[in-house]
Amino acid sequence: MSRTVHCALLGQELPGLAFAPYPGELGQRIYNEISQQAWNQWLEQQTMLINEHRLSPINPEHRKFLEQEMEKFLFQGQTDKPEGYVPPEST
What we know:
3 helices, single chain, two-stranded antiparallel ribbon, 49% helix, YggX-like, mainly alpha
């Protein structure tokens, strides 16, 4: 049986993550409070941020920026798009 969480982002009982997707206390908080659906939304947001800002996950400053954005997105519901961002067209 899959576990459920009351998702902090989506405000509903939804299937939770299978494991903590990030190290440390933040990863445990995500595991306890964020649904798989919300995590998938964050992964899309993160991909957009990496591409639009030309970030490198191996750069410590870029990782710190992504961690801050992840906390804002998942726990505060803030979703800032980069200036000039144009979403890809649906086919």
